[in-house]
């Protein structure tokens, strides 16, 4: 059928409208979405950045705490040594100093600024947080006044105070600006420099640290709404719809999503406990065991925790798993532990769980049955993850200690929070990470860190456990430093329940009062 020319044109126009309108609508919707996502992103970036800056300054505060505890008030040779050791240990602190009020350096931990007069004399307040410049480098200087009128100070590199990499996977796209209360910019950097862009073209998020009077601004240029962007987003949109449909079809075809798998494993009780012995290397006696979870699949494969614990954590199922594991362990070791009241059993608890009061009740409920005493229980809090809520965590720790349990800080030395958490949390035990044990004897820094930790533990009446001990050389190094508890493949790998109970029977038959001995260790000493 031959249509007249104008009708053809109308038909084409209607066709374009019908095909194009949904696409244009989709683009507009996408633009709003991108805008909102970016607003979320700058908010998250600002919050995350202020957390990082606070953690760095926290570490400087802790370093000054340690200097005060260890009696550094001026610059005797002994005190300068302590200054040096502490400067090596505090990773994000560039240097530790004793200053007079005019800002003159009397002594320095790393001699990074020997005998130089810092540009600024110390200002008002106690402690004082100030921006100082040494040659071309900028530092935040945290200074605390001593009773004798001198000042203890820590220098944190300004560059270390803002994140260089992502908070959400991809490159960190926002521009981050950190300033002091008086508006002085401490440091800035990150994504695209917004300084010569119009304020109306920017999205900003901000966050403040009450504690230190620091403020962060995260700045991102608004997404560009030009025609190219529209075409680009249309293509993206079509691709997204395709990907969505594809994903939807895939999930319909394959119901075995990893999370679904894990949920099934949880209800089928496939998470089992392995037990790694903890030993006293001075007497060669068994002290207890750490529970390490394994996924024992129906076909007998054993899956290590690195493959599923992160997923349990993300999905919030970790608490269910931990409760089940505790019950399982209680039933498995009840008789053996009832007969050996000095043995301990340690559980790994995630930081998020440790900030919830429920944990206290759960422990109490689980161990109300069976013969494992609350005094035999140790709960390990890892330093690898950032602590969730310091105040709540501290309360939970105190409540657990009130029940008679003990609390250990795990992976010490690897964490975000540094020594400050050890001081603040009031834990009973610190577990020094394998990383430091491995480099004992061949790296001076590790030895200095371990010595500082042991000193600190002694002052605070905490017990120290060395993790990941693999050879006798390390045992000798640990003994020389007065560390008596250790865990590692040298003594035993994590053992299935039956093997652990058999080991107990073999070395520590019930009725003996002194506890089981690992004879091979005595021979080796
Ligand atoms: P972790 O708590 O630091 O546990 C110590 C890890 O080091 C264990 O790995 C253990 O098998 C391993 N290990 C012990 N001695 C040696 C040694 O001498 N050499 C070497 N190379 N490794 C040694 P595993 O069992 O794979 O557990 C890994 C991590 O998974 C644990 O680290 C812990 O953070 C987490 N995890 C394990 N069980 C649980 C659990 O029940 N709940 C939670 N939340 N996390 C758990
Ligand atoms: Ca642990
Ligand atoms: Ca550990």
Report on this model:
By secondary structure, this protein is of the alpha/beta class. The protein has 2 domains: about 5-255, no CATH class; about 260-525, EAL domain (TIM Barrel, Alpha-Beta Barrel), CATH 3.20.20.450. The chain is about 45% helix and about 20% strand. It contains 15 helices and 19 strands. An 8-stranded mixed β-barrel has the order 10-11-13-14-15-16-17-18. Helix 9 (about 390-405) links the parallel strand 14 (about 375-380) and strand 15 (about 405-410). Helix 1 packs across helix 3 (about 225-255) and helix 2 crosses helix 12 (about 445-460). The longest helix is centred in the first third of the chain and has 65 residues, at about 5-70. The chain is flat. The structure holds ligand C2E and calcium ion (2 copies). The site of ligand C2E has 22 residues, from strand 11, helix 6 and strand 15.
Primary descriptors:
alpha/beta; five-stranded antiparallel sheet; TIM Barrel; binds calcium ion; binds ligand C2E
CATH class of the largest domain: Alpha Beta
Tally of domains: 2
Q: Fill in the CATH topology of the largest domain.
A: TIM Barrel
Q: How many individual helices?
A: 15
Q: Give the helix proportion (percent range).
A: 40-55%
Please give the order of strands in the largest beta sheet. Answer: 10-11-13-14-15-16-17-18
Taken from the alpha-carbon principal axes, the silhouette is: flat
């Amino acid at each position: 059928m031959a249509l007249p020319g104008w009708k053809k044109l109308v038909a084409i126009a209607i066709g374009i409208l019908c095909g194009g309108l949904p696409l244009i609508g989709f683009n507009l919707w996408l633009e709003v979405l991108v805008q909102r996502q970016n607003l979320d992103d700058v908010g998250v970036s600002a919050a995350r950045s202020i957390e990082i800056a606070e953690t760095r300054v926290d570490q400087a505060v802790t370093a000054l705490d340690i200097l005060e505890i260890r009696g550094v008030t001026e610059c005797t040779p002994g005190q300068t040594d302590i200054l040096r050791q502490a400067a090596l240990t505090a990773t994000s602190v560039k240097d530790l100093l004793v200053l007079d009020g005019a800002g003159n350096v009397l002594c320095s931990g790393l001699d990074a600024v020997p005998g130089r007069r810092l540009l600024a004399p110390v200002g008002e307040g106690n402690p004082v947080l100030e921006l100082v410049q040494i040659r071309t480098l900028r530092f935040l200087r945290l200074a605390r006044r001593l009773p004798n009128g001198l000042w203890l100070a820590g220098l944190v590199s300004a560059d270390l105070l803002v994140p260089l990499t992502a908070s959400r996977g991809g490159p960190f796209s926002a521009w981050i600006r950190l300033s002091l209360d008086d508006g002085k910019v401490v440091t800035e950097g990150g994504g695209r420099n917004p300084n010569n862009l119009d304020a109306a073209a920017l999205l900003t998020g901000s966050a403040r640290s009450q504690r230190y009077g620091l403020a962060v601004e995260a700045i991102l240029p608004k997404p560009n709404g030009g025609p190219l962007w529209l075409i680009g987003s249309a293509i993206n949109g079509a691709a997204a719809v395709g990907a969505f449909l594809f994903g939807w079809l895939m999930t319909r075809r394959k119901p075995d999503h990893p999370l679904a798998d894990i949920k099934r494993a949880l209800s089928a009780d496939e998470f089992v406990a392995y037990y790694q012995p903890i030993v006293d290397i001075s007497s060669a006696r068994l002290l207890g065991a750490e529970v390490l979870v394994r996924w024992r699949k129906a076909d007998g494969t054993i899956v290590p925790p690195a493959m599923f614990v992160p997923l349990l954590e993300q999905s919030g199922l970790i608490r269910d798993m931990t409760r089940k594991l505790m019950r399982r362990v209680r039933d498995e070791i009840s008789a053996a532990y009832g007969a050996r009241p000095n043995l301990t059993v340690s559980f790994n608890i995630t930081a998020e769980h440790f900030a919830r009061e429920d944990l206290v009740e759960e422990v109490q409920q689980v161990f109300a049955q069976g013969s494992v005493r609350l005094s035999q229980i140790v709960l390990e809090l890892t330093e690898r993850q950032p602590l969730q809520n310091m105040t709540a965590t501290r309360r939970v720790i105190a409540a657990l200690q009130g029940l008679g349990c003990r609390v250990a800080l795990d992976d010490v030395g690897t964490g975000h929070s540094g020594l400050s958490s050890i001081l603040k949390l009031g834990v009973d035990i610190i577990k020094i990470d394998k990383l430091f044990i491995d480099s004992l004897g061949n790296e001076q820094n590790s030895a200095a860190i371990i010595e500082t930790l042991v000193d600190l533990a002694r002052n605070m009446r905490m017990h120290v456990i060395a993790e990941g001990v693999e050879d006798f050389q390390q045992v000798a190094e640990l003994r020389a430093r007065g560390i008596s508890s250790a865990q590692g493949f040298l003594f035993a790998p994590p053992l299935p329940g039956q093997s652990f109970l058999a080991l107990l029977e073999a070395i520590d038959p019930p009725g003996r009062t002194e506890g089981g001995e690992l004879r091979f260790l005595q021979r080796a000493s």
